[in-house]
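seq as requested:
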Amino acid sequence: MTDETDKAAPGRRDTKQDRLASALRENLKRRKVQARERSKPSEPSRNDEVTPHQGIAGKSGD
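struct tokens:
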């Protein structure tokens, strides 16, 4: 009653494991690059200079 097609061939299983291992390595590389990008200090944008609540009236020293 057992069907031989239910059992995976040894060569087929190795290729699946190889694909999974390769995908895991690529994912790890991608995550390392993302972590490096996040740890870099970002350059302030032009919008960071003045907040919406600050304006000419918000400046002191006059």
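The chain is about 50% helix and 0% strand.
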